[in-house]
Amino acid sequence: MAYLGRLISVAMDHTILLTSLTVLFFVSVSCACPSGFTTHENNCYVLLPVPTTWAEALRLCDAVKAKLAWIENGAENTFIVQMLKKTNTTGHSTEVWLGGTDMLLEGMWMWADDMELIEYTNWFPNEPNNAGNNQHCLGMMVNHDFKWDDYSCSLTNYPLCKRMQDDGEQSVIG
């Protein structure tokens, strides 16, 4: 009888261990960002080292299972600025594309991925200004403390892509 009790105890310990390992494995796989992406909270970010137009940037981000970055609050903006400073891929004069646009209605800025109005902003003073009536795409000005500006969508800037950690798609950058 003692043998049977010990056998049940070992079997239960083994089941608990397997369950724990399964949970740990699941958590580590489902919460990780793909190689080349930087993690912040529940999101993954990557700056693609290819200057493109805004429309090309949308397609490049899509190719890595991401969207041109949308920024929801000041903490996220601060994180992105720090990430870009560490990455230093952009040098000192090239700008970074974000996913905002006012193409549908001048002055009504939306995120291109879901057409939601942009609530948090970090505009440079006197921006957006739609200079030349041709600035409808959102970027970060690297040489002006990473403040936001409206740009002509045909300019070439570096795409900043963002995706959720748990979307289940795997991409490798680099």
TrEMBL record:
It comes from the Eukaryota. Residues 1-32 form the signal peptide. It holds the Pfam family Lectin_C. The keyword Signal applies. InterPro entries: C-type_lectin-like, C-type_lectin-like/link_sf, C-type_lectin/snaclec_domain, CTDL_fold. Keywords: Signal. Residues 40-162 form the C-type lectin domain. Transmembrane segments: none annotated. This is C-type lectin domain-containing protein.
